[in-house]
Each structure stands twice: as structure tokens, then as C-alpha cells.
Amino acid sequence: MRWAIAATMPGRRGRRKRAAFRVGCRGMAKSRASKPITEGGDALPASIKPAELAERLRDPEFRERIEAAITQLPPDKAAELVVLLEASIRRRKVELLGYLGAALVLLIGMVIALYAFGSADQDQFVGWVFLAPLAAAGVILIAVARWSAKREVQDRKRGRAAAPAPPPDPARDDG
To answer: Is 121 helix (H, G, I), strand (E, B) or coil?
Structure first.
């Protein structure tokens, strides 16, 4: 408790404690990230960047290792992986449609706002009409993001429910 109070207090002592805590957290994160996802030689680290992954996926040997690792998965884990990939792809499709819809609303709204601004009288202030398309596009983006996240969670739950349950462990007797 004393450390928590000192870490939140302004001053040199609080900064040192926060820095020590951050260094400790980074050390834990690095040790976890350095462990490979799959067992064996040159595996894929947890903290790989998308550009690096795309570069490595061009290598046929790397792709063969990934395919071999996927074929060695148990059926229930393979089904779970397929469900996760399908849910992710569906989410990205919904988000893409949301981006396109927001861009279309923004384009049409700006054309209408420009027309309204140009056709208004000189003594009227109608600059606010340029904010309406931005607000509409923002609302669309927020709504689509929430909807896609909710849909992905539902798809994952549905996929887990459809996946076969693991067989009961005979060593464990519940009753």
C-alpha cells in the first residue's frame, strides 16, 4: 500500500518507483514475447509486426512449417482456430463496409454542404453545415465498430458452442 501511495505522489520518489515498476513490466513483457508460439526451431514470436509476418509468409519453407503445425493440431483446436479466423474475416468485412459507407456519406454530405454554403446569403453564417457530414461519418464509424465487435463476440460464442466438447477425463471423478 505504501508503494502505491508513493508511486502516485508527485516528486522524485514517486517517479523513481513508477520507473522501476515500468522497467519490471517491460521485462515481463519481453520474456513472454520472446517465447515462441509453436515449439521447435525458428518459430513465430508473439510480438511480430504485420510487415514482418507478410515478409515471412512469402517464404515457402515458413508456410510449410505453419501448414504442418496446423495439421498437427487436435480437431477441437483446429475447429476453434477456424471459428476465430472466420469471425475475424467477417468483422473486417463489416468494418470495410462501414468505412465505405462513412466515406460515401462524407462525400455526399460535403457536396450538399458546399451547395448550401454557396447558395446562402452573404449576411448568413452557414459554416456549420460542413460539420454535419463529419458528425454523420463519425457516428457511422462508431456504430459500425461497436456492431462488428459485438458480432465477432457472438460468432466466437456460437463457434465455441458448435465445436465438439472435449471427452471427459477418466482420471478425474466428479461424482
So the answer is: coil
